[in-house]
């Protein structure tokens, strides 16, 4: 379960939920101090995550895809190549 606190995190949370690897719960309220989550929605999300194995499978698929990407050394080498 992801409870985003900033707009970028909300985007990431919605992507993870869109991939089936998470549940995204966005607090509601007009100001930061008023932001609240419905306790029933939190409980329902936890129940779903714990009872539905599809979330774990989707998270594993995302982990595998990310793990297959080239790492920071590749990126650093690419940046150096492009700047010369």
What's the gist of this structure?
Helix content is 62%, strand content 0%. The protein has helices spanning 7-18, 39-51, 53-67, 72-83. It starts with 6 loop residues before the first helix and ends with a helix.
Structural notes for this entry:
The structure is a single chain. By secondary structure, the chain is mostly helical. It has one domain. It has helices at 7-18, 39-51, 53-67, 72-83. It is flat, with a radius of gyration of 18 Å. The relative contact order is 0.13.
Essential attributes:
flat, single chain, 84 residues
How are the SSEs ordered, and which strands pair?
Blueprint: H1 7-18, H2 39-51, H3 53-67, H4 72-83
Low-confidence stretches: none
The biggest beta sheet reads: none
Number of domains: 1
| Share of helical residues | 55-70%
Percent strand equals under 5%
